Amino acid sequence: MVKTKGYAANNAHSPLASYSFERREPRPQDVVIEIRYCGICHTDIHQVRDEWGGSTFPMVPGHEIAGVVTAVGDKATKFKVGDKVGVGCMVDSCRHCVPCRSGLEQYCAEGPIYTYNSREHDGTVTMGGYSDKIVVDENYVLKMPDNLPLDACAPLLCAGITLYSPLKHWHAGPGKNVGIVGLGGLGHMGVKLAHAMGAQVTVFSQSLRKQEDAKRMGADNFYATSDPETFKKLVASFDLIVNTVSAGIDWNQYTNLLKIDGSFVIVGVPDKPVPVDAFPLIMGRRSIAGSLIGGIRETQEMLDFCGEHNVASTIELIPIQKVNEAYERMLKSDVRYRFVIDMASLKSS
Ligand code: NAP
Ligand code: ZN
Ligand code: ZN
């Protein structure tokens, strides 16, 4: 077994604290990774606080994992010791259903095996990236861009792919007007990626506080959602709006901003159902849709795209001892724009 050190939540109400555990003995197709950095996703907070129900404790969160290969199994051919690699939200899936065979493992008919708070095929509870090592089947490991700093690339593994996938699916590109709602971890990656794809990008944020940062990331326009004028002057302007907000907001205000055939895509998870009016949809053949991370193949495509276009996350690197404080700041929308844990700090824990 592989002795591992990390940070875990013991229940839904306690702060994360130092925790030691064991990972499986590497199998022939496994890659052993020394984790250097792990991003903090808002999903980690939802899961640690059991906001979606069914959380298993102790829980080691973290699914924006970037590190270096330290060992490979006899039958693993894709990676070698020393490679810079990443692990995102999934560490396995059934591998035989139609979605799995089509590279859409995130929609696996049996449910993908998530990087933490999930169960392996043998029933073992998965433990995530707030830790110093991970053992993962090579088919669920990604190659990181060589030309970009590893810490700033960790958030690509969830925030990056979660925006890349819908932007691609709904054809963000030259001549398209794309709106991004919420400028947090996901939202700021949406701005950078949509801009790199050549789209016109507009940010909807609660206030104008983050305007200058957004412009530097490639946003063309920036609006405060606290100003009612925003929703009057932008009616029928957008081909696509991606909502990254982790709270209930009035979706009807946004569907009115879509052009004919425009789509409002939900990736942020509100805490309760949000009512939807029929008329704004009917009157413009508009759609409301959802999107979940991205498949392994598409995640690699996104990482290669980021390498080519010099796209990485804007991060605040923190020691693991500050993880609970980082959660509190995220809950106040005070994140510029992704916290990334420097795993070297685990040594002093
Ligand atoms: P985050 O960094 O906390 O960003 C969320 C942003 O939403 C905030 O920075 C803020 O932006 C805005 N916001 C927060 N509370 C708000 C409120 N009450 N009203 C209006 N706007 C508010 O979170 P994240 O890591 O980007 O994750 C966002 C959501 O996506 C979470 O629910 C997470 O679980 C979900 N998620 C989904 C997927 C998927 O595959 N679908 C993948 C990863 C994460 P402003 O300050 O600009 O307003
Ligand atoms: Zn995530
Ligand atoms: Zn499957």
Structural class from helices and strands?
alpha/beta
State the assembly state of the protein chains.
single chain
The ligands bound in this entry are: NADP nicotinamide-adenine-dinucleotide phosphate, zinc ion
Report the average pLDDT across residues. 97
Taking the alpha carbons of the first and last residues, their distance comes to 22 Å
Compute the number of helices: 11
Strand percentage:
25-35%
List low-confidence stretches: none
Biggest sheet features? 7 strands, mixed
Give the topology string: H per helix, E per strand.
Answer: EEEHEEEHEEEHHEHEHEHEHEHEHEHE
Mass-distribution shape: globular
Roughly how many Å is the radius of gyration? Answer: 20 Å
Number of strands: 17
Q: In percent, how helical is the residue content?
A: 10-25%
Compact summary:
The protein is an alpha/beta fold and 349 residues long. It has helices at residues 42-48, 98-101, 150-153, 159-169, 185-196, 211-217, 229-233, 251-255, 279-282, 296-309, 323-331; strands at 2-8, 17-23, 30-39, 65-72, 84-87, 90-92, 113-114, 133-137, 142-143, 177-181, 200-205, 221-224, 238-243, 258-266, 287-290, 315-319, 338-342. The chain is globular, with a radius of gyration of 20 Å.
